[in-house]
Amino acid sequence: MTERSEILREVSADGERWDVLVIGGGASGLGAAVESAARGYKTLLVERIDFAKGTSSRSTKLVHGGVRYLEQLNITLVLDALRERGHMLQNAPHLVHDLSFVVPAYSRPSLAYYGFGLKVYERLSGKHSFGRSKFLSRERTLQLLPAISREGLQGGVLYHDGQFDDARYAISLLRTFQDLGGTAINYVEATGLLQRNGKTVGISARDTEDGETFDVQAKAVINASGTHTENILSMDSAPHGAVLAVSQGTHFVLPGSFLEGKTALMIPKTADGRVLFAIPWHGSTIVGTTDEPVDHASDEPRALAQEKSFLLDHIDRYFGRRPAAGEIQSVWSGQRPLVRSGSGKTSQLSRDHRVLVSESGLVTITGGKWTTYRRMGQDTVDRAAEVASLDKRPSRTVDLKLHGWMDTHPEGVPEWELVYGSDLAQLQALSDEQPEWNELLHPMLPYKRREVVWAARYEMARTVEDVLARRTHALFLNARAAMEAAPVVAKLLAKELKRSDAWMTQDLAAFQALAAGYVYEDG
Ligand SMILES: Cc1cc2nc3c(=O)[nH]c(=O)nc-3n(C[C@H](O)[C@H](O)[C@H](O)COP(=O)(O)OP(=O)(O)OC[C@H]3O[C@@H](n4cnc5c(N)ncnc54)[C@H](O)[C@@H]3O)c2cc1C
Hints:
Number of helices: 17
Bound molecules: flavin-adenine dinucleotide
Low-confidence stretches: none
Shape: globular
Largest sheet: 10 strands, mixed
Helix content: 25-40%
Distance between the termini: 46 Å
Strand content: 15-25%
Mean pLDDT: 94
C-alpha cells in the first residue's frame, strides 16, 4: 500500500493535471471516482475527514427500491433502485445479502393492501428479484417475529430486500478505485476552487493533518460533498440558488432479543406517515429511522429529543415495551442531502438524484440514495466528460466486480469477517505475524486486534475513530464497548502509523469525547 506521504507528494506536485477531480469520499464521490477511473480517466478523490464519515456510514443499511416510494408512485425511482440493487448483489456479494422482511397487519383490509403492494414491488424487480412475497398466517408471523405486539394481529406479508454494510462498501469502492489506478486521499479538504477565464480548473486544498496548503489542477471538478454541497457551490464565481434540503434520521441499536431471529420488521405507516424498520444486524437490532428537517449540516449530528421519543413510542407500540436506557447500545444520526423542491415536508421530497453543471463548469451531484450510487456516478461522469471535453468512453461499472468479490461464501466465517471477501485469508494471516492480534478488542464486540492493523496498513485508517466507526462498526454497534476498546486500538494504531505517545493520548481523548455522543441519554 502506498504511504500517505507519497500520495500527498503526487497530489500536490506542480504541473500534475488530473482529468477528473472528485470532492467528497461518500457514496456519491466514491461512485463517481470508480466510474471515472473505470473509463480510464486519470482521477483524484479528496475527502476532508474520512471516507464515509458523512451520511454514507449512517444509513439504515438497506439496498432497496423503497416500498415507500412505490406508495408515492415514484415508479422510475423504484425501478432504477431495484435494478441497482441487483447490480450491487452481483458485484459485491461479500457486502450485500438478501433479507426477509415481515409487515405485520392489524386489520384485514391492511393485510390485503400490503399483500398487493408488495407483490407489485416484487414484480417490478423482474429478473433482479430477491425472492417472492407471500401472505403469512398470524401464527407464522409470530414465529418469525416472536417479540411483536400480539393484540389485534391478523397476519403479515413477507417480502425480500437487500441489506448491506454501508461503510465497508465505501471502503471496497475505495480499494476498487485504487485497483483501477485512481488516487484517493482522506484528511485533505477542498478549501477553494481555482478558476481561470470564468472556468473551474482545479481546487485549493489543505492537508488537515499538518495544515499544508497546495493547489491541484483538473480538467473536470466534481462536487460530491453531500450536505456540504452549497459550501462548495459558494466557492464558485457563478451564482447558484438553494439546491439542498437537509433532513436528519436517527437510529437506535437494541439487543438482538427485540427481533430474536433473522427476519426484519417493516412498519408500513408511522405516526408521521412514513415507514420504520427493525433490522437484525450483527446480533443486535437496528431501529430507524426518523425524518426531521434541519437548517444546518453537521458532521456529527446528534439525535433530537423528538426523534428519541418518536423511536421509543414506536418501539413501545410494536414490541409492547420501551427499552431501558441501558439497553440502547448506540444512538446515531445521519443527514440526507436531498434535492430541494417546493416547501413541503422533507419526508415527501423525492430521493431522485440531480446533476447540476454551473456556468464555470463545476459539476455537482446531489440527492439520491446509497442504492443508486452507481447510476449517480455514471450520470455525473457523463456530464463531467462533456464539460471537460474528455474522450467519450462508455460506462463499465454495471458488471464491475468490486474489491474483495468472491463467488462463494466460505463455510463457518462469521458475518463481520465475510465483508473482507477475498482479502480474508490475508487478514487472517496477520495472526501468524503476532498471535495476540487474534484477540478480541472487547468481549462485547466481534472484532479482533488484527482488524486494526489491517485498517492501518491497507485501508487508510488514520485515527481511532476511523477504525472503530468505519473500518469496523464498533461505535455504531455498542458505544460503551467501543469506548472501552479504544485504548487498545490507539496503541495498535500508533505503532502501525509510527505516531508519538502525545498523538496517541490526544487521538484517544478525541474519540472518547465523540463516542460519548453515541451513548443514549434521556431527553
Ligand atoms: C438516516 C438515513 C438513512 C438512510 N438509509 C438509507 C438506506 O437504507 N439505503 C439507501 O440506499 N440510502 C439510505 N440513505 C441515503 C444515503 O445514505 C445517502 O444518500 C448517501 O449516503 C449520501 O452520500 P453522499 O456521498 O452524497 O454524502 P456523504 O456520505 O455525506 O459524503 C459527502 C462527503 O464529502 C465530504 N466533504 C464535504 N466537504 C468537503 C470538502 N470541502 N473537501 C473534501 N471533502 C468534503 C464529507 O466529509 C463527506 O464525507 C439514508 C440516509 C440517511 C440520512
